[in-house]
Design goal:
One of its GO terms (molecular function) is isomerase activity. The strands form 2 sheets. A 6-stranded mixed sheet has the order 1-2-3-4-6-9, with helices on both faces. A 3-stranded mixed sheet has the order 5-7-8. It has 11 helices and 9 strands. The radius of gyration is 19 Å and the shape is globular. Helix 1 links the parallel strand 2 and strand 3. The longest helix has 16 residues. With 262 residues, it is α/β, with parallel strands linked by helices. It has 2 domains: 195 residues, Alpha-Beta Complex (2-enoyl-CoA Hydratase, Chain A, domain 1), CATH 3.90.226; 62 residues, Lyase 2-enoyl-coa Hydratase, Chain  A, domain 2 (Orthogonal Bundle), CATH 1.10.12. 45% of the residues lie in helices and 15% in strands.
Length: 262
C-alpha cells in the first residue's frame, strides 16, 4: 500500500498499488499520513521523495470505494480523515520532491502539489478530473494550485478537467523539470540530496515563511522573518558554516543533529 525506503538520508515514499495505478483508498491515505509523520520524527531523514509504483504516480481516489449509502455526515467525516496527508505535508519541515511518471489524476495531482518541487517524466500527465464525475477538487488542490498558476488558469483546469501534459505543466510553473522516464528517479534523488545539504533549521524556517506569504500582511511577515533570522544567526550551523567559509570549504550541515527534533 505504502512503501518507505531510505538511502543516504533521503526517504522515498512509494504509493504501492500498481495494478490500480496507485489509486488511493481510505486505508492508503491513512497509511500515507502515518508514513509522513514517521519521517518527520526520523532525524536521519533529511529529504523525502514521493512517487508511485510501476509507470504511474497516482490515478486519484479509489472509485470503487466511492459507492455507498448517501449519508452526507458520514461522508464528511471520511473526507476530513482523508485530509490527514495534506495536514502532514503542509507542516513538514524537510524538502519534499514529487517524482511523477504516468498519470497524476485527481487526488494524485493534489498530493503532488503538496510537494516543494515536482519533477516529471516526459510521459507524465496531470488532471484535476473531479468535474468529470461531478465532484469538487479535494486534498487542498484549490489552495495549492492557485498559488502556483493564479486563479484564472486554475479555473480553466478545474472547470474543464482537461489533461495537462508534462511540458505544459512545466510551462505553467507546476513542474520544475521534465526528464526522460528512465532518468526520473535519479534526478529526483539528485535534487533531494542538493536540498538536504542545507541547514535543516534554516530550511524549515524558510519553508514556513514561504507558506505564510499569502496569508500574512507585509509587516507580520517581516516580523516573522526577523525572528527566524535571529535564530539562524545565533545557531551552531552558522558558526560552522562561517568557519568552513574562512577555510574556503563548502558548508557542511550534516554533522549536527537538528535541535528542534531531539
Amino acid at each position: 500500500m505504502i512503501r518507505t525506503t531510505i538511502k543516504n538520508g533521503v526517504a522515498t515514499l512509494t504509493l504501492d498499488n500498481a495494478e490500480r495505478k496507485n489509486a488511493l483508498s481510505a486505508a492508503a491515505l491513512a497509511a500515507f499520513a502515518d508514513a509522513v509523520e514517521a519521517l518527520r520524527r526520523d532525524t536521519t531523514v533529511r529529504a523525502v521523495i514521493l512517487t508511485g509504483a510501476g509507470s504511474d504516480f497516482c490515478s486519484g481516489g479509489d472509485v470503487s470505494a466511492m459507492q455507498g449509502p448517501a449519508d452526507t455526515a458520514a461522508v464528511r467525516r471520511r473526507m476530513i480523515e482523508s485530509q490527514r496527508p495534506c495536514a502532514a505535508l503542509a507542516t513538514f519541515d524537510k524538502p519534499v520532491i514529487a517524482a511523477v511518471d504516468g498519470v497524476a489524476y485527481g487526488a494524485g495531482f493534489s498530493i503532488a502539489l503538496m510537494a516543494d518541487f515536482i519533477v516529471a517524466s516526459e510521459r507524465a500527465r496531470f488532471c484535476l478530473a473531479f468535474a468529470r464525475m461531478g465532484l469538487v477538487p479535494d486534498l487542498a488542490a484549490l489552495h495549492t494550485l492557485p498559488r502556483i498558476i493564479g486563479a484564472q488558469r486554475t479555473r480553466e483546469l478545474v472547470y474543464s478537467a482537461r489533461e495537462l501534459p508534462a511540458q505544459e505543466a512545466q510551462a505553467l510553473g507546476i513542474v520544475l523539470e521534465v526528464v526522460p522516464a528512465d532518468a526520473l528517479c535519479e534526478r529526483a534523488h539528485e535534487l533531494a540530496l542538493a536540498m538536504s545539504a542545507q541547514s535543516p533549521d534554516a530550511f524549515a524556517m524558510t519553508k514556513r515563511l514561504l507558506a505564510q506569504t499569502f496569508e500574512r500582511d507585509f509587516g507580520a511577515l517581516l516580523d516573522a522573518e526577523a525572528g527566524a533570522q535571529a535564530i539562524a544567526l545565533t545557531s551552531p550551523y552558522l558558526r560552522e558554516a562561517a568557519a568552513r567559509f574562512a577555510r574556503k570549504e563548502a558548508p557542511l550541515f550534516r554533522w549536527l543533529r537538528n535541535d528542534r527534533e531531539g
